[in-house]
Description:
mainly alpha
Amino acid sequence: MPAPTANPASGSAASPAHPPLRAKPARSVWSPRYWYRRIVALRATPHQIAMGTAVGVFLAFTPTFGFQMVLALAVAFAFRLSKPATIIPVWISNPITLVPVYGTTYALGAMFWPGETIADLPAVLSRFSNVSALDLESLRQALRDFWDVGTILMGPLWIGAFIVGVPLGVITYPVTRRGVIAYRHHRAHVRHERRARRLAAKQDTTSI
């Protein structure tokens, strides 16, 4: 005689030995909160982490794209800051955000730049057509024009970097420092509760 099968609709159906685990929500690497949690969990003093983060935020707005990580490491080594905390904020300026970041800093810097701006760039470039390799004075003028092209771009970018980067760096320091301290207090509280629960469980087993 075949064994009776359990009715799926009845309450006597066998339940799984382990309930299914709830999937944790995916953490996006593009989320500022994700990287903030990574920074406050670093191993260094609160000052080293906070100052490193502030320096990295400032460097992210400087027109040093391609060399920012090298500069961040150099500053971190020189001033004994947290290296990961200094490097992580540098990625604020990446290939995706490059245009809006530098566009904003240039627009702000151009408001305070006393020299030529990007609007004068075509006129400066047109002077290169009059360069003669056999004329020393013409070559000197070409070098001056080349320098002008650099200052037209870099001058406003550097001014804008200070206008944006310095205030953000100043704000970043106390926010990050408090975050590190709060995170460590929370971790210490969690460890204390776990020790208390283990001690209580041990006392319960010995009293039986």
